[in-house]
Amino acid sequence: LDRELNIKRFTPRAQDLFNVIPSDIGRPLVHLTHRLDCDYLWEMTQSVLQTLRSVEREVRSRDGRCYLARWLPYRSIEDRIEGVVLTFVDVTDLRDAVAARRRSEEALLQVEERLRVALRSAPLVILGFDALVGPGSDALVATWGFVMGRELDPHERTALTMFAPGHGDRLRASVREVVTQRAGQRAELDLVIGDATHTFDVRIEPTAFGATAVGFDITPSKLAEASLRDADRRKDEFLATLSHELRNPLAPLQVALDVARLTDDDPAQRAHSLSIMERQVGMLTTLVNELLDLSRITQGKIVLERSPVSLAHVLESALIATRPKIDDAKHELRIELPDKQIEVDGDFRRLVQVFTNLLSNAAKYTPPGGHIGLTVVLEDHKVAVRVQDDGLGIAPDMLPRIFEIFVQSRDARGRSQGGLGIGLSLVRRLIELHGGSVRAVSDGRGRGSEFVVELPLRNGRA
Q: I need a labelling partner for 266 at 20 to 30 A (CA). Which of 192, 247, 316, 411 fits?
Protein backbone atom coordinates (compact mmCIF):
# COMPACT_ATOMS: atom_id res chain seq x y z
CA LEU A 1 0.00 0.00 0.00
CA ASP A 2 1.22 3.52 -0.77
CA ARG A 3 0.90 6.52 1.54
CA GLU A 4 -2.74 6.94 0.50
CA LEU A 5 -3.26 3.26 1.35
CA ASN A 6 -3.88 2.33 -2.25
CA ILE A 7 -2.71 -1.04 -3.57
CA LYS A 8 0.73 -0.97 -5.11
CA ARG A 9 1.49 -4.70 -5.34
CA PHE A 10 0.12 -8.02 -4.10
CA THR A 11 1.26 -11.62 -4.21
CA PRO A 12 -0.79 -14.32 -5.90
CA ARG A 13 -1.73 -15.83 -2.51
CA ALA A 14 -3.36 -12.53 -1.54
CA GLN A 15 -6.20 -13.52 -3.81
CA ASP A 16 -7.07 -16.26 -1.25
CA LEU A 17 -8.08 -13.55 1.24
CA PHE A 18 -8.84 -10.45 -0.85
CA ASN A 19 -10.95 -10.31 -3.96
CA VAL A 20 -8.22 -8.64 -6.04
CA ILE A 21 -7.25 -8.84 -9.66
CA PRO A 22 -4.37 -7.08 -11.48
CA SER A 23 -6.62 -4.20 -12.48
CA ASP A 24 -7.23 -3.43 -8.77
CA ILE A 25 -3.76 -1.95 -8.42
CA GLY A 26 -4.25 1.68 -7.42
CA ARG A 27 -7.58 1.06 -5.71
CA PRO A 28 -7.93 2.10 -2.02
CA LEU A 29 -7.75 -0.70 0.54
CA VAL A 30 -11.04 0.43 2.00
CA HIS A 31 -12.82 -0.44 -1.28
CA LEU A 32 -11.69 -4.08 -1.20
CA THR A 33 -13.71 -6.94 0.21
CA HIS A 34 -11.98 -9.79 2.09
CA ARG A 35 -12.68 -13.08 3.78
CA LEU A 36 -11.09 -12.16 7.14
CA ASP A 37 -13.02 -11.96 10.37
CA CYS A 38 -11.37 -8.59 11.04
CA ASP A 39 -13.47 -5.42 11.23
CA TYR A 40 -10.51 -3.19 12.12
CA LEU A 41 -8.36 -3.85 9.07
CA TRP A 42 -8.68 -0.31 7.63
CA GLU A 43 -8.35 1.46 11.00
CA MET A 44 -5.30 -0.59 11.98
CA THR A 45 -3.61 0.23 8.66
CA GLN A 46 -4.20 3.96 9.15
CA SER A 47 -2.84 3.78 12.69
CA VAL A 48 0.38 2.07 11.59
CA LEU A 49 0.97 4.68 8.91
CA GLN A 50 0.46 7.49 11.42
CA THR A 51 2.44 6.03 14.35
CA LEU A 52 5.06 4.19 12.29
CA ARG A 53 4.80 1.27 14.73
CA SER A 54 4.51 -2.31 13.59
CA VAL A 55 1.52 -4.35 14.77
CA GLU A 56 1.00 -8.11 14.90
CA ARG A 57 -2.34 -9.81 15.42
CA GLU A 58 -3.78 -13.27 15.01
CA VAL A 59 -6.89 -13.24 12.82
CA ARG A 60 -9.17 -15.88 11.36
CA SER A 61 -10.73 -16.22 7.99
CA ARG A 62 -14.40 -16.96 7.63
CA ASP A 63 -13.57 -20.54 6.58
CA GLY A 64 -11.82 -21.16 9.92
CA ARG A 65 -8.17 -20.75 8.89
CA CYS A 66 -5.86 -18.96 11.29
CA TYR A 67 -3.41 -16.26 10.09
CA LEU A 68 -0.68 -14.24 11.71
CA ALA A 69 -1.27 -10.71 10.36
CA ARG A 70 1.46 -8.03 10.43
CA TRP A 71 1.18 -4.29 9.61
CA LEU A 72 4.66 -2.92 8.81
CA PRO A 73 5.51 0.67 7.78
CA TYR A 74 8.16 0.59 5.04
CA ARG A 75 10.73 3.11 3.93
CA SER A 76 12.13 3.84 0.53
CA ILE A 77 15.80 3.89 -0.39
CA GLU A 78 15.76 7.59 0.39
CA ASP A 79 14.54 6.72 3.94
CA ARG A 80 11.08 8.07 3.34
CA ILE A 81 7.87 6.42 4.52
CA GLU A 82 6.31 5.08 1.38
CA GLY A 83 3.35 3.23 2.87
CA VAL A 84 2.37 0.06 4.68
CA VAL A 85 3.03 -3.61 3.98
CA LEU A 86 0.40 -6.16 5.08
CA THR A 87 1.49 -9.78 5.42
CA PHE A 88 -0.67 -12.78 6.31
CA VAL A 89 0.99 -16.07 7.32
CA ASP A 90 -1.25 -19.15 7.52
CA VAL A 91 -0.47 -20.66 10.96
CA THR A 92 -3.45 -23.00 11.11
CA ASP A 93 -1.34 -26.18 11.00
CA LEU A 94 1.11 -24.75 13.51
CA ARG A 95 -1.69 -23.84 15.90
CA ASP A 96 -3.18 -27.30 15.51
CA ALA A 97 0.21 -28.84 16.24
CA VAL A 98 0.64 -26.66 19.33
CA ALA A 99 -2.85 -27.58 20.52
CA ALA A 100 -2.13 -31.25 19.92
CA ARG A 101 1.12 -30.98 21.82
CA ARG A 102 -0.66 -29.25 24.69
CA ARG A 103 -3.24 -32.03 24.80
CA SER A 104 -0.46 -34.62 24.74
CA GLU A 105 1.33 -32.90 27.60
CA GLU A 106 -1.87 -32.77 29.63
CA ALA A 107 -2.50 -36.45 28.94
CA LEU A 108 1.10 -37.22 29.93
CA LEU A 109 0.65 -35.33 33.19
CA GLN A 110 -2.48 -37.35 33.90
CA VAL A 111 -0.64 -40.60 33.19
CA GLU A 112 2.26 -39.50 35.41
CA GLU A 113 -0.16 -38.65 38.22
CA ARG A 114 -1.85 -42.04 37.89
CA LEU A 115 1.58 -43.67 37.94
CA ARG A 116 2.51 -41.76 41.09
CA VAL A 117 -0.71 -42.91 42.76
CA ALA A 118 0.04 -46.49 41.72
CA LEU A 119 3.61 -46.25 42.99
CA ARG A 120 2.46 -44.82 46.31
CA SER A 121 -0.02 -47.64 46.87
CA ALA A 122 1.87 -50.65 45.48
CA PRO A 123 4.26 -52.78 47.58
CA LEU A 124 7.09 -52.12 45.16
CA VAL A 125 10.62 -50.86 45.04
CA ILE A 126 11.48 -49.06 41.80
CA LEU A 127 14.85 -47.46 41.04
CA GLY A 128 16.04 -45.81 37.85
CA PHE A 129 19.78 -45.62 37.10
CA ASP A 130 21.53 -43.49 34.52
CA ALA A 131 24.40 -45.01 32.58
CA LEU A 132 27.05 -43.63 34.93
CA VAL A 133 29.05 -46.84 34.98
CA GLY A 134 31.84 -47.76 32.64
CA PRO A 135 35.40 -49.07 32.47
CA GLY A 136 37.39 -47.84 35.43
CA SER A 137 34.39 -46.17 37.04
CA ASP A 138 32.58 -47.33 40.17
CA ALA A 139 30.19 -44.37 40.36
CA LEU A 140 26.55 -45.46 40.31
CA VAL A 141 23.65 -43.27 41.41
CA ALA A 142 19.93 -43.91 41.18
CA THR A 143 18.39 -40.81 39.60
CA TRP A 144 14.87 -41.56 40.85
CA GLY A 145 13.12 -44.14 42.97
CA PHE A 146 10.13 -45.21 45.04
CA VAL A 147 10.03 -47.66 47.94
CA MET A 148 6.65 -48.87 49.20
CA GLY A 149 4.95 -45.76 47.84
CA ARG A 150 7.48 -43.27 49.21
CA GLU A 151 9.67 -41.26 46.87
CA LEU A 152 13.34 -41.47 47.80
CA ASP A 153 15.32 -38.36 48.58
CA PRO A 154 18.71 -37.72 46.89
CA HIS A 155 20.74 -39.07 49.81
CA GLU A 156 18.79 -42.32 49.91
CA ARG A 157 19.17 -42.76 46.17
CA THR A 158 22.90 -42.08 46.32
CA ALA A 159 23.76 -44.25 49.33
CA LEU A 160 20.99 -46.85 48.91
CA THR A 161 20.51 -46.62 52.67
CA MET A 162 17.19 -48.44 52.57
CA PHE A 163 18.89 -51.75 51.72
CA ALA A 164 20.10 -54.23 54.33
CA PRO A 165 23.90 -54.33 54.83
CA GLY A 166 25.59 -55.74 51.76
CA HIS A 167 22.43 -55.80 49.64
CA GLY A 168 22.91 -52.30 48.26
CA ASP A 169 26.35 -53.32 47.01
CA ARG A 170 24.81 -56.40 45.39
CA LEU A 171 22.32 -54.19 43.56
CA ARG A 172 25.09 -51.86 42.37
CA ALA A 173 27.09 -54.80 41.01
CA SER A 174 24.04 -56.25 39.23
CA VAL A 175 23.12 -52.89 37.67
CA ARG A 176 26.70 -52.42 36.49
CA GLU A 177 26.64 -55.83 34.77
CA VAL A 178 23.22 -55.15 33.22
CA VAL A 179 24.35 -51.81 31.80
CA THR A 180 27.59 -53.30 30.49
CA GLN A 181 26.21 -56.57 29.10
CA ARG A 182 22.76 -55.21 28.10
CA ALA A 183 21.11 -58.29 29.60
CA GLY A 184 18.58 -58.43 32.44
CA GLN A 185 19.21 -59.99 35.83
CA ARG A 186 17.13 -61.07 38.82
CA ALA A 187 18.01 -60.96 42.52
CA GLU A 188 16.38 -61.32 45.93
CA LEU A 189 17.34 -58.31 48.03
CA ASP A 190 16.44 -57.26 51.58
CA LEU A 191 15.27 -53.75 52.46
CA VAL A 192 14.87 -52.35 55.96
CA ILE A 193 11.50 -50.59 56.16
CA GLY A 194 10.73 -49.19 59.58
CA ASP A 195 11.84 -51.82 62.08
CA ALA A 196 11.21 -54.77 59.75
CA THR A 197 13.25 -56.39 57.01
CA HIS A 198 11.38 -57.10 53.77
CA THR A 199 12.56 -59.34 50.95
CA PHE A 200 12.00 -58.17 47.38
CA ASP A 201 12.22 -60.11 44.14
CA VAL A 202 14.07 -57.51 42.03
CA ARG A 203 14.20 -57.60 38.24
CA ILE A 204 16.91 -55.38 36.67
CA GLU A 205 16.54 -54.52 32.98
CA PRO A 206 18.63 -52.32 30.68
CA THR A 207 17.07 -49.12 29.32
CA ALA A 208 18.08 -46.56 26.71
CA PHE A 209 19.69 -44.43 29.43
CA GLY A 210 20.93 -47.04 31.91
CA ALA A 211 18.88 -49.55 33.88
CA THR A 212 15.68 -49.87 35.88
CA ALA A 213 15.22 -52.12 38.93
CA VAL A 214 11.68 -53.18 39.84
CA GLY A 215 11.08 -55.35 42.89
CA PHE A 216 7.98 -56.95 44.39
CA ASP A 217 7.64 -57.59 48.11
CA ILE A 218 7.77 -61.37 48.55
CA THR A 219 8.18 -61.32 52.33
CA PRO A 220 4.88 -63.17 53.01
CA SER A 221 5.79 -65.97 50.60
CA LYS A 222 9.32 -66.18 52.03
CA LEU A 223 7.92 -66.41 55.56
CA ALA A 224 5.47 -69.07 54.43
CA GLU A 225 8.29 -70.96 52.74
CA ALA A 226 10.42 -70.75 55.89
CA SER A 227 7.45 -71.88 57.97
CA LEU A 228 6.91 -74.89 55.71
CA ARG A 229 10.60 -75.79 55.89
CA ASP A 230 10.50 -75.45 59.67
CA ALA A 231 7.35 -77.58 59.88
CA ASP A 232 8.97 -80.20 57.66
CA ARG A 233 12.10 -80.16 59.82
CA ARG A 234 10.05 -80.50 63.01
CA LYS A 235 8.05 -83.32 61.45
CA ASP A 236 11.30 -85.18 60.65
CA GLU A 237 12.52 -84.60 64.21
CA PHE A 238 9.19 -85.83 65.55
CA LEU A 239 9.33 -89.01 63.45
CA ALA A 240 12.91 -89.64 64.58
CA THR A 241 11.88 -89.16 68.21
CA LEU A 242 8.81 -91.35 67.73
CA SER A 243 10.97 -94.14 66.33
CA HIS A 244 13.36 -93.76 69.26
CA GLU A 245 10.60 -93.71 71.86
CA LEU A 246 8.86 -96.73 70.37
CA ARG A 247 12.14 -98.65 70.21
CA ASN A 248 13.27 -97.82 73.76
CA PRO A 249 10.80 -100.10 75.58
CA LEU A 250 11.44 -103.00 73.24
CA ALA A 251 14.93 -103.85 74.53
CA PRO A 252 13.86 -104.08 78.22
CA LEU A 253 10.79 -106.06 77.11
CA GLN A 254 12.94 -108.55 75.21
CA VAL A 255 15.41 -108.91 78.11
CA ALA A 256 12.64 -109.31 80.68
CA LEU A 257 10.92 -111.89 78.47
CA ASP A 258 14.14 -113.89 78.09
CA VAL A 259 14.77 -113.75 81.85
CA ALA A 260 11.21 -114.89 82.56
CA ARG A 261 11.68 -117.90 80.29
CA LEU A 262 14.92 -118.88 82.07
CA THR A 263 13.64 -118.42 85.63
CA ASP A 264 10.59 -120.68 85.84
CA ASP A 265 11.90 -121.97 89.17
CA ASP A 266 12.57 -118.46 90.63
CA PRO A 267 9.21 -116.78 91.36
CA ALA A 268 10.82 -113.55 92.65
CA GLN A 269 12.92 -113.04 89.54
CA ARG A 270 9.98 -113.94 87.34
CA ALA A 271 7.78 -111.39 89.13
CA HIS A 272 10.48 -108.73 88.69
CA SER A 273 10.64 -109.48 84.97
CA LEU A 274 6.87 -109.25 84.67
CA SER A 275 6.96 -105.90 86.46
CA ILE A 276 9.51 -104.58 83.94
CA MET A 277 7.38 -105.80 81.02
CA GLU A 278 4.28 -104.23 82.53
CA ARG A 279 6.06 -100.89 82.95
CA GLN A 280 7.39 -100.91 79.38
CA VAL A 281 4.01 -101.87 77.93
CA GLY A 282 2.53 -98.98 79.90
CA MET A 283 5.01 -96.60 78.29
CA LEU A 284 4.13 -97.91 74.83
CA THR A 285 0.42 -97.59 75.60
CA THR A 286 0.88 -93.98 76.71
CA LEU A 287 2.75 -93.10 73.53
CA VAL A 288 0.16 -94.71 71.30
CA ASN A 289 -2.70 -93.09 73.21
CA GLU A 290 -1.11 -89.65 72.81
CA LEU A 291 -0.83 -90.21 69.08
CA LEU A 292 -4.41 -91.43 68.84
CA ASP A 293 -5.69 -88.49 70.92
CA LEU A 294 -3.86 -85.98 68.75
CA SER A 295 -5.16 -87.64 65.59
CA ARG A 296 -8.76 -87.61 66.88
CA ILE A 297 -8.59 -83.97 67.92
CA THR A 298 -6.97 -82.90 64.65
CA GLN A 299 -9.71 -84.67 62.68
CA GLY A 300 -12.46 -83.36 64.96
CA LYS A 301 -13.44 -86.88 66.04
CA ILE A 302 -12.94 -86.52 69.78
CA VAL A 303 -16.09 -86.10 71.88
CA LEU A 304 -15.95 -84.74 75.42
CA GLU A 305 -18.00 -86.54 78.06
CA ARG A 306 -19.15 -83.39 79.80
CA SER A 307 -20.54 -83.28 83.31
CA PRO A 308 -20.24 -81.04 86.39
CA VAL A 309 -16.63 -81.55 87.46
CA SER A 310 -14.98 -80.54 90.73
CA LEU A 311 -11.72 -78.78 89.88
CA ALA A 312 -10.24 -79.91 93.21
CA HIS A 313 -10.87 -83.58 92.29
CA VAL A 314 -9.29 -83.05 88.87
CA LEU A 315 -6.13 -81.55 90.38
CA GLU A 316 -6.01 -84.22 93.08
CA SER A 317 -6.03 -86.96 90.43
CA ALA A 318 -3.34 -85.17 88.42
CA LEU A 319 -1.17 -84.81 91.55
CA ILE A 320 -1.57 -88.51 92.38
CA ALA A 321 -0.36 -89.37 88.88
CA THR A 322 2.66 -87.05 88.99
CA ARG A 323 3.62 -87.21 92.68
CA PRO A 324 6.16 -90.03 92.22
CA LYS A 325 8.01 -88.04 89.55
CA ILE A 326 7.99 -84.90 91.74
CA ASP A 327 9.20 -86.81 94.78
CA ASP A 328 11.92 -88.65 92.84
CA ALA A 329 13.38 -85.28 91.79
CA LYS A 330 13.05 -83.97 95.39
CA HIS A 331 11.04 -80.94 94.23
CA GLU A 332 9.20 -78.78 96.72
CA LEU A 333 5.51 -78.57 95.79
CA ARG A 334 3.39 -75.58 96.87
CA ILE A 335 -0.39 -75.73 96.42
CA GLU A 336 -2.80 -72.81 96.83
CA LEU A 337 -6.51 -73.53 96.42
CA PRO A 338 -9.57 -71.39 97.26
CA ASP A 339 -11.71 -72.49 100.20
CA LYS A 340 -14.93 -72.68 98.18
CA GLN A 341 -15.90 -75.50 95.87
CA ILE A 342 -15.16 -74.77 92.18
CA GLU A 343 -16.99 -76.60 89.40
CA VAL A 344 -16.52 -76.52 85.67
CA ASP A 345 -18.49 -78.16 82.88
CA GLY A 346 -16.01 -80.59 81.39
CA ASP A 347 -14.63 -84.05 80.78
CA PHE A 348 -13.03 -85.25 84.01
CA ARG A 349 -10.61 -87.68 82.33
CA ARG A 350 -9.44 -85.13 79.74
CA LEU A 351 -8.94 -82.38 82.32
CA VAL A 352 -6.87 -84.77 84.45
CA GLN A 353 -4.83 -85.51 81.31
CA VAL A 354 -4.21 -81.76 80.81
CA PHE A 355 -2.96 -81.01 84.31
CA THR A 356 -1.02 -84.27 84.54
CA ASN A 357 0.87 -83.19 81.44
CA LEU A 358 1.61 -79.70 82.81
CA LEU A 359 2.75 -81.00 86.22
CA SER A 360 4.89 -83.72 84.58
CA ASN A 361 6.57 -81.09 82.41
CA ALA A 362 7.23 -78.90 85.45
CA ALA A 363 8.94 -81.83 87.16
CA LYS A 364 10.83 -82.82 83.99
CA TYR A 365 12.18 -79.36 83.13
CA THR A 366 13.14 -78.37 86.68
CA PRO A 367 16.57 -79.47 88.02
CA PRO A 368 16.48 -81.70 91.16
CA GLY A 369 15.55 -79.85 94.33
CA GLY A 370 13.52 -77.24 92.48
CA HIS A 371 10.19 -75.60 93.30
CA ILE A 372 6.82 -76.26 91.68
CA GLY A 373 3.69 -74.26 92.36
CA LEU A 374 0.02 -75.07 91.69
CA THR A 375 -2.29 -72.08 92.21
CA VAL A 376 -6.00 -71.69 91.55
CA VAL A 377 -7.45 -68.17 91.23
CA LEU A 378 -11.09 -67.17 90.68
CA GLU A 379 -11.51 -64.38 88.11
CA ASP A 380 -15.07 -63.13 87.42
CA HIS A 381 -16.78 -65.89 85.42
CA LYS A 382 -13.72 -68.06 84.97
CA VAL A 383 -11.06 -69.87 86.95
CA ALA A 384 -7.32 -69.72 86.29
CA VAL A 385 -5.02 -72.63 87.18
CA ARG A 386 -1.35 -71.68 87.25
CA VAL A 387 1.45 -74.28 87.12
CA GLN A 388 4.78 -72.64 87.97
CA ASP A 389 8.35 -73.86 88.21
CA ASP A 390 11.82 -72.36 88.65
CA GLY A 391 13.37 -74.68 86.11
CA LEU A 392 14.97 -74.32 82.70
CA GLY A 393 12.52 -71.76 81.34
CA ILE A 394 11.58 -71.12 77.72
CA ALA A 395 13.53 -69.10 75.17
CA PRO A 396 11.65 -66.00 73.90
CA ASP A 397 11.64 -67.26 70.31
CA MET A 398 10.07 -70.54 71.45
CA LEU A 399 7.21 -69.04 73.47
CA PRO A 400 4.87 -68.36 70.50
CA ARG A 401 5.48 -71.91 69.19
CA ILE A 402 5.54 -73.97 72.38
CA PHE A 403 2.01 -75.32 71.77
CA GLU A 404 2.57 -76.20 68.10
CA ILE A 405 2.56 -79.79 66.94
CA PHE A 406 6.02 -81.33 66.40
CA VAL A 407 7.70 -78.74 68.68
CA GLN A 408 9.27 -81.42 70.78
CA SER A 409 10.47 -79.76 73.94
CA ARG A 410 12.15 -76.79 75.47
CA ASP A 411 15.68 -78.22 75.37
CA ALA A 412 17.75 -81.34 74.90
CA ARG A 413 17.42 -82.21 78.61
CA GLY A 414 13.68 -82.64 78.19
CA ARG A 415 14.12 -84.83 75.14
CA SER A 416 16.62 -87.00 77.01
CA GLN A 417 13.90 -87.84 79.54
CA GLY A 418 11.59 -89.24 76.89
CA GLY A 419 8.27 -88.22 75.42
CA LEU A 420 7.12 -87.23 71.97
CA GLY A 421 6.77 -83.55 72.70
CA ILE A 422 3.13 -83.47 71.53
CA GLY A 423 1.74 -83.10 75.03
CA LEU A 424 1.42 -79.31 74.99
CA SER A 425 -0.32 -79.43 71.64
CA LEU A 426 -2.81 -81.85 73.18
CA VAL A 427 -3.18 -79.57 76.21
CA ARG A 428 -4.07 -76.56 74.08
CA ARG A 429 -6.53 -78.44 71.89
CA LEU A 430 -8.27 -80.09 74.85
CA ILE A 431 -8.60 -76.81 76.74
CA GLU A 432 -9.96 -75.07 73.62
CA LEU A 433 -12.56 -77.86 73.32
CA HIS A 434 -13.62 -76.91 76.86
CA GLY A 435 -14.06 -73.27 75.79
CA GLY A 436 -10.94 -72.17 77.67
CA SER A 437 -7.43 -71.02 76.86
CA VAL A 438 -3.85 -71.76 77.86
CA ARG A 439 -0.74 -69.62 77.64
CA ALA A 440 2.91 -69.93 78.56
CA VAL A 441 4.95 -67.28 80.38
CA SER A 442 8.72 -67.24 80.87
CA ASP A 443 11.44 -64.65 81.32
CA GLY A 444 13.86 -66.79 79.30
CA ARG A 445 16.20 -69.72 79.72
CA GLY A 446 17.07 -70.53 83.29
CA ARG A 447 14.28 -68.25 84.60
CA GLY A 448 11.52 -70.82 85.11
CA SER A 449 8.13 -70.90 83.43
CA GLU A 450 4.43 -70.65 84.13
CA PHE A 451 1.49 -72.19 82.31
CA VAL A 452 -1.89 -70.58 82.86
CA VAL A 453 -5.07 -72.51 82.06
CA GLU A 454 -8.33 -70.55 82.08
CA LEU A 455 -11.68 -72.35 82.11
CA PRO A 456 -15.23 -70.96 82.24
CA LEU A 457 -17.03 -71.65 85.51
CA ARG A 458 -20.09 -73.86 85.48
CA ASN A 459 -23.18 -71.59 85.23
CA GLY A 460 -20.81 -68.62 85.17
CA ARG A 461 -20.12 -68.69 88.93
CA ALA A 462 -18.31 -70.68 91.59
A: 247
